[in-house]
Structure to design on (695 residues):
């Protein structure tokens, strides 16, 4: 990475990754040893005793994943200032993501006793079908997402392992993180009709690459599955916090370095205009209509609103300690976003004049780091994406395995399972999910970053509305929630299918051609009227959720009263009332009474 | 309140940026239109940075002083677990 000491500094990324791995394993160990079982094993293992503090809640709710630390700078480098507008709904995102439903989700989760998201929906609406549907949608979207993340982790490992391959190159690592591919394997895939010795060498190299990828995958899987299985939710949270801090430190180091080197942002803007045209300084972006105003509006929905519907966010909202924690978390996240995203825009606008005309914009981040920082700092900054992959994977691993253990094994297969059996099932479930995903990732999927956008849109379109109307609308019914969930996920899938189907397909149905906006290639959706699929998914979901709820029978008064009105410390959970309806009678009547100050307070946003 | 804040941000940023920061058919822009403020193009300063600061202050003040403390209630996890067992036993 550094020309001065190539032999030594090529091991810096490896050393940093080893440190990351060790820290993660230690955090897993600590998470297991330092927490005791207070409210049952599952609650501890999957929610960390609902004791998450403000810093953890703030930093883990940040929507950064492995790709975005590379992908976002790359977009700024390519399209210029307009990308600052693309991300700027992060100004309000802490408020919408945590403030909008935070307290109510925390409250509903406690009053129902829910540990997982399917639990929460099932108990809120009193519908086992809804619970099962939630589990299935989570498993469907998150698994696709996880396979891509495992592949990215394995690819990074492959580059830094000393396996006789060319020395680790930060640029290649970064590009692999971003796309899930690396150039070497692409070039190998091309048929070579020339020199046969060259072909043989390439084949040998391909085999070596393949072996290194598999070894990388094995190491990555072992690490992440070990610490996640052992440490549970808290291990996932703590590694997430650790990685977020590394990221903010990296940005804080880069900002002054870039500014000193540059001598003025205006200079950089003019250099950008010289290289890429006036679009570098203005919308809709340099080179192509990257970000027309319809997408500008879409991304205010995308970051600020869909962020609230992610299962990982909702689970964290079920786990924070008290409302005070939530308020502080909101403040910390506001500060964190300002410290990370605004400087990133400045740094990578500056990158245009420090590193003019890069062939591949994905190289902007790693090349800039190499140019500006010494190899140790560069190693740490480049390890941040790996850390992001690790922590993202561990969080999702638990969401999937909790769904399997709680909502399928315990609820459907063996309701009478003892605590010990559940404990064993949780460990085995987490390990099995990890192994299955790793097995699928043996064939590396392409387009990591775009899979991430696709899966988050789908998940948000499915869960946001059921969660929102479940929190604040007494009249919301189970069929309404089911319709909202299926409608939202369905519309997102449909728009992606249309986008992939090409122009012929939309033509035949009589829709206008897909506007040429957003990213140029890859997993592109169909931008109906220029808007992102998430806008349409959520719109349909709102309409169906409200419409179908109004058309179906109102929910049981006892359940609604237990969840919406303050009922005193001895009130039963709704599941208890389901088993013993006589317990619910008192509460059913109370819903007719005028609201108490407490109930009103808990019902408002 | 939160949704209103979101709406205000969305409307202000999108309208301001579109009016002053977008190249449109009837409004070509060039290097001389950048009009830097602290090195940023002026549309970016007024359309992104200023609202971001205002919004940041709003978030901190709202979360710090106006958001009500609520009792989140008693955790019924154990009860639910018993209910699942009981429901399965029947």
């Amino acid at each position: 990475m550094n020309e001065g000491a190539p032999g030594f500094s090529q091991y810096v990324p490896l050393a940093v990754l080893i440190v990351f791995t060790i820290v993660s394993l230690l955090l897993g160990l600590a998470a297991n040893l330092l927490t005791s079982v207070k409210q049952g094993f599952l609650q501890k293992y999957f929610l960390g005793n609902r004791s998450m503090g403000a810093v953890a809640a703030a930093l883990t709710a940040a929507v950064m994943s492995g790709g975005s630390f590379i992908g976002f700078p790359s977009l700024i480098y390519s399209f210029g200032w307009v990308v600052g507008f693309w991300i700027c709904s992060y100004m309000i995102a802490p408020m919408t993501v945590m403030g909008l439903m935070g307290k109510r989700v925390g409250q509903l989760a406690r009053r129902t006793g829910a540990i997982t998201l399917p639990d929460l929906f099932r108990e809120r609406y009193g519908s086992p079908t809804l619970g099962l549907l939630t589990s299935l949608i989570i498993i469907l979207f998150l698994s696709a997402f996880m396979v891509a993340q495992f592949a990215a982790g394995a690819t990074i490992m492959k580059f830094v392992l000393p396996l006789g391959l060319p020395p680790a190159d930060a640029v290649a690592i970064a590009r692999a993180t971003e796309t899930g591919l690396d150039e070497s394997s692409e070039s190998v895939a091309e048929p070579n009709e020339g020199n046969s010795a060259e072909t043989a060498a390439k084949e040998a190299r391909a085999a070596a690459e393949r072996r290194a990828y598999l070894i990388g995958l094995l190491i990555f899987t072992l690490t992440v599955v070990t610490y996640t299985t052992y440490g549970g939710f808290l291990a996932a949270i703590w590694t997430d916090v650790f990685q977020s801090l590394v990221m903010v430190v990296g940005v804080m180091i880069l900002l002054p370095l870039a500014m000193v080197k540059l001598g003025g942002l205006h200079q950089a803007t003019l250099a950008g205009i010289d290289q890429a045209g006036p679009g570098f300084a203005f919308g809709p972006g340099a080179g192509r209509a990257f970000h027309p105003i319809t997408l500008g509006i879409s991304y205010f929905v995308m970051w600020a609103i869909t962020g609230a519907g992610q299962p990982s966010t909702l689970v964290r909202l079920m786990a924070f300690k008290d409302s005070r924690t939530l308020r502080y978390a909101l403040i910390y996240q506001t500060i964190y976003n300002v410290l990370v995203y605004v400087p990133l825009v400045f740094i990578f606008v500056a990158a245009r004049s420090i590193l003019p005309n890069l062939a591949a914009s994905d190289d902007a981040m790693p090349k800039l780091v190499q140019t500006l920082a010494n190899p140790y700092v560069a190693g740490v900054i480049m390890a941040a994406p790996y850390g992001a992959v690790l922590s993202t994977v561990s969080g999702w691993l638990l969401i999937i395995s909790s769904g399997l253990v709680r909502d399928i094994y315990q609820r459907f297969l063996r309701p009478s399972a003892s605590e010990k059996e559940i404990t064993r099932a949780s460990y085995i479930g987490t390990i099995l999910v990890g192994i299955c995903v790793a097995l699928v990732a043996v064939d590396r999927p392409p387009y990591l970053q775009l899979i991430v956008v696709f899966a988050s849109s789908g998940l948000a379109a499915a869960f946001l509305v059921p969660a929102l109307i479940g929190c604040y609308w007494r009249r919301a019914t189970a069929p309404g929630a089911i319709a909202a969930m299926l409608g939202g996920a369905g519309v997102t899938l449909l728009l992606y299918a249309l986008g992939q189907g090409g122009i012929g397909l939309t033509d035949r149905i009589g829709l206008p051609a897909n506007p040429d906006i957003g990213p140029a290639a890859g997993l592109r959706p169909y931008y109906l009227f220029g808007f992102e699929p998430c806008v349409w998914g959520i719109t349909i979901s709102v309409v169906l959720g409200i419409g179908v709820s109004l058309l179906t029978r109102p929910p049981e008064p006892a359940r609604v009263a237990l969840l919406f009105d303050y009922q005193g410390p001895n009130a039963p959970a709704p599941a208890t009332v389901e088993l013993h309806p006589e317990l619910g009678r008192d509460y059913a009547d109370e819903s007719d009474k005028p609201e108490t100050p407490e109930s009103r307070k808990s019902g408002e946003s | 309140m939160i949704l209103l804040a979101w709406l205000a941000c969305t409307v202000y940023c999108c309208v301001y940026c579109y009016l002053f920061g977008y190249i449109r058919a009837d409004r070509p822009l060039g290097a001389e239109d950048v009009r830097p403020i602290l090195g940023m193009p002026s549309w970016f300063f007024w359309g992104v940075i200023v609202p971001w600061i205002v919004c940041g202050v709003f978030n901190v003040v709202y979360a710090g002083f106006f958001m009500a403390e609520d009792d989140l209630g008693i955790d019924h996890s154990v009860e639910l677990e018993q209910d699942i067992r009981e429901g399965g036993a029947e």
Q: What stands out?
A: The helical segments of chain B are 2-21, 42-66, 77-89. Chain B touches chain A through 63 residues (CB under 8 Å). The radius of gyration of chain B is 24 Å.
